[in-house]
Amino acid sequence: MKAVLLAAVSLISTSALAGPGVITAPVSATIDVGGPGEGSIADTYNENGLLSSYVPGVTNFDAYIATDPMHSLAFAGNEWFSNYGSTTAQVTYDLGSVKSINALALWNEETSGIGTLALTGSADGVTFNAIGTYMPIDNPLANYPAQVFSFAKTSVEFVRFGMSDCPQPNPGSYPSCAIGEVAFRTASGTVPEPAAWTLMIAGFGLVGAALRRRAPIVAA
């Protein structure tokens, strides 16, 4: 009986607090404004162009960033640019399910990049709330590093990039907004996915059943 209780409690706790501090990557993205552009938007979250890789849901975000992972300056198959001549663009990333996140790693493309980034998030894809506004690094014409933007923990499935002041001035050789790669850090208290909720409910059921089956204590 004790083993059943411990197993159920373990199931509940591990499901509710899975993966704090690890990297989570988008599973898809939509170009809302400034598209279709040049290159594939998928190349901004599939690790193409990164000179060292990570495992989503496993690799520790801070430990990975501490290795100073660089992104290739090569465009083909590695980066995305908004339409030629655009000074603004908007992209919405889908994390696949509602997750608690508290940081963004952005590899800001080196020839155009993002001048000002307005970050918003949504749990349902309809109502978006402000996360923060940031001024990414204007990277030189070379392989470039990630810049980390930390923010208050927010539970979202969709993260929207509102990009403006594009291109960045140095070198600013291509008039558009551009993204190299993005990744996010999960926060403690990650929101469980539907399958995890099912496991948690089953765990509570096991606890309840075990308690009901306990024999009553009879006073002497």
Structural class: alpha+beta
Query: Helical segment tally?
Result: 3
* CATH superfamily caption of the largest domain: Galactose-binding domain-like
The main β sheet shows up as:
7 strands, antiparallel
Work out the strand percent: 25-35%
Percent in helix: 10-25%
Termini Cα gap: 24 Å
Which value, in Å, is the CA radius of gyration? 22 Å
| Strand and helix order | HEEHEEEEEEEEEH
Quickly count the domains. Answer: 2
Q: How would you state the average pLDDT, rounded?
A: 85
Q: According to CATH, what is the class of the largest domain?
A: Mainly Beta
CATH architecture of the largest domain: Sandwich
CATH topology of the largest domain: Jelly Rolls
State the low-pLDDT regions, or none.
1-18, 190-204, 206-211, 214-220
How would the global form be characterised?
A: globular
How many β strands by DSSP? 11
Write a brief caption for the model.
The protein contains 3 helices and 11 strands, in the order αββαβββββββββα.
Topology:
Elements: H1 2-16, E1 23-24, E2 28-33, H2 61-66, E3 70-71, E4 80-81, E5 89-107, E6 116-122, E7 129-134, E8 144-145, E9 147-164, E10 178-179, E11 181-186, H3 194-212
Antiparallel strand pairs: 1-11, 2-5, 3-8, 4-10, 5-9, 5-11, 6-7, 6-9
Helix pairs in contact: 1-3
Describe this structure in words.
By secondary structure, this protein is an alpha+beta fold. The chain is built from three helices and eleven strands, in the order αββαβββββββββα. It has helices at 2-16, 61-66, 194-212, and strands at 23-24, 28-33, 70-71, 80-81, 89-107, 116-122, 129-134, 144-145, 147-164, 178-179, 181-186. The strands form three sheets. Strands 1, 2, 5, 6, 7, 9 and 11 form a seven-stranded antiparallel sheet that branches. Helix 1 (2-16) packs antiparallel against helix 3 (194-212). The two termini are 24 Å apart. Mean pLDDT is 85; it is low at 1-18, 190-204, 206-211 and 214-220.
